[in-house]
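Hi! If you just cloned this repository, the fastest way to understand the data is to look at a raw example. We've pasted two of them here, unedited. The first protein comes first, obviously.
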Amino acid sequence: MKHSWRVIISLAIVAGLACDGVAAQTYPTKPIRFIVGPGPDILARLIGQKLTDTWGQQVVVDQRPGAGGIIAADTVAKSIPDGYTLLLTTGAYTINATLYPKLPYNLERDLAPVDLLALISFLVIVNPSLPAKSMQELVQLARAKPGTLNCAHSGPGTTAHLGCEMLKASARIDIVPVSYKGTNPAIVDVISGQAQLMFAVMQGGLPQVQAGKLRAVAVTGAKRSAALPDVPTITESGFAGADFISWNGVHVRAGSPKAIVAKLNDALNRTIKLSDIQERMGGLGLEPAGGTPEAFGAFVKEDIARWAKVIKSANVRVE
């Protein structure tokens, strides 16, 4: 009897895998919904148009920006697990995993990684009138004038805010994180001198640096920016503890057929290797990434652990 049940179960598994394979061969047979929360909708539109061209099925970008990505992620977590509802994930989602202990979904349990699309560096920017032309000089100034330098950021618990906290801890300096309602108002106040420094996402800070309105003293990430080759990384500057990146990727509802996830992964990897897509991504401050779903899943797990450590150490809370 036990042997018979084992045979039945094995046959059921084989039949299920066969169905998944057939589904993947014909996928997609209807429009795909690409949900965007706090991520750049322009990236979703660029990728979505290429997938539409490739597959002949419309990829519809659906913006759900509320609640810092919680609404968008919960929508996908409660969707049908068939690969027809995609989520543009960002570093905000791995931060939220710790920042909000009562989320209506679990990032690792309810969503399945598909592909890491891009890595995003941040610039450490200062007002040009500040007597600090390097990261070392900025830290020296902060030590000489504790509690007087304001580190602007785009809101409590954002990547820019946690960058301020990481710099405080790693450089052992007393700077004051100051919250703004978004990146642009924060940048405006650094330009005006109301705040002295900021961790600005590349696409937000770079135009102001190039226009001479702000000075970049360091860039986060593993390598220098091609747009600012003379600006050292924050690690090169001696403050590896303040180094971080953000990212964009794609998740689907957990339980989606693995064959469809694999087909999506292959299509996305091919798309971000196209020269015109790479050019557009570069203009947005995005570094094309790619890889396997498994590697992306491991990346997300590590990112959750990294931000959890920062959030708990700095006792960061949101209302």
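Ok, and the second one:
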Amino acid sequence: MFKLCDMHCDTATECYDKGMSLYDNVLHTDFRRLIDQGVGVQFFAVWISPTYALEGFSRATKVIDFIKKECEKHHRVVSLVEDKESLEKEDGKLKVVITIEGGEAIDGDIDNLHRLYNMGVRLMTLTWNGRNALGEGSMSGDGGLTPFGKKVVKEMNSLGMIVDVSHLSDRGFWDVAEVCEGPFVVSHSNSRTICNHPRNLTDEQIQHLIKIGGFMGLNLNPPFLSDEKADLDSIYAHVDHCLSLGGADVLGFGADFDGIDSLPCGIAGIQDMYKITEYLLQKGINQGILSKLTSSNLLRVIKGI
């Protein structure tokens, strides 16, 4: 079995809201199953929904505190990643990275970005679907980054915080490409050529990620995979297309577990991810490429940033 590293799930936010344990629950994933499946690194998103748009920082701190307490409670098998050394420590533990999904979390105050970093946040998705103080979401229009959003990107660069443009508009993507120093990521988005959805990436955007050494995490949300039935073959179609563009060194997974309403046929949660890797092998993806997709591409980009 290939060791998996995944760049996006909403499980922590769901557990916080529903009063569930992050170690063992009935959602798409949890610490126990991640460990059972041999997952190496999991990014846990703190999602700032529109409901909390006016109290984003307060909301973020509460969910971050929950994640850190769950990690401490299960410290024998889980460790929090805050730097390169903690990521590379070979202790056999599941490595947890805290992220923010939605720039509303900083409440329009650049100092809050520093506060979130000091709390352990190492990636921020600049927008969700709508517009915020940083820029335009992919489901609300084609505006780009605001002047404040450009300032935030540059500040994230100086901190060593990963800039994530999933959910951002096309124009916003290219604004980030212009102002970001070094690689950025698209943590949970697919190919628009294979499935024409505004949350997916154009070939030109994928080729830019390849050029800068960024990262693209495949999302298992059925509407982002196929206009018809989403299944293992739909996932393969996105992988195959990205590889055809030369994306062997940037492609990985950002499954979006517990952030989506349904999953592809045959996939019920993290426990079924092995079905994807086995299918990709059957379709002719060699073991060297699959090792890049499952872990080394993601590890390369986060260590570099």
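That's it. A detail worth noticing about the second one: The domain at 1-125 is CATH 3.20.20.140 (TIM Barrel).
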